[in-house]
Design goal:
Number of strands: 2
Distance between the termini: 99 Å
Radius of gyration: 25 Å
Order of helices and strands: HEHHE
Number of domains: 1
Strand content: under 5%
Helix content: 55-70%
Shape: elongated
Length: about 160
């Protein structure tokens, strides 16, 4: 059994390219999420201004909004969404062991991350913040739409 010859061959070009693409996708995820965060910051800065303009155009000078709670809710949601988007752009310190590229065992809390785990954890962290920010932005838009329908003119 020890005398059996084991033949091997180098990986094919397509296998190498697939592996490169996989690694590149892991590395690029945090960068892509940063781009999304920048777009959300722009959106969360623009929407309140557009909303105030729409209120003014629909109601005119004598308009009264009947639901201050809805307006407050809309602006609160937009503020929190803006804050979460900005937090996702702020660099975070991660405990990484640069001598470990990847590991096959589960990481325990407090352990250093491998390089691959760092990229995955960073993307997961940003994704959670940005999904929450997107949902809050949408909820704020819903609140704003509801207030536009409750705007009345004073006699």
């Amino acid at each position: 059994m020890d005398d059996d010859i084991i033949y091997s061959a180098p990986p094919s070009k397509s296998d190498e390219e697939l592996e490169k693409g996989f690694v590149t996708a892991i590395i690029e995820q945090p960068k892509l999420l940063d781009e999304l965060a920048k777009q959300l910051v722009t959106l969360n800065l623009a929407i309140p201004g557009l909303y105030a303009t729409a209120l003014k155009l629909i109601g005119g000078d004598d308009a009264v909004v009947n639901s201050a709670v809805m307006i407050g809710g809309a602006f609160f949601c937009w503020f929190v969404a803006l804050a979460l988007s900005l937090v996702s752009l702020i660099p975070r310190k991660w405990k990484v062991n640069p001598s470990i590229l990847r590991r096959n065992v589960e990481v325990r809390k407090g352990d250093s991350l491998s390089i691959e785990e760092f990229f995955r954890a960073s993307a997961r962290y940003k994704r959670l913040l940005l999904i929450t920010a997107s949902l809050l932005c949408f909820v704020g838009i819903c609140f704003a739409c509801l207030t536009l329908f409750s705007t009345t003119k004073t006699p």
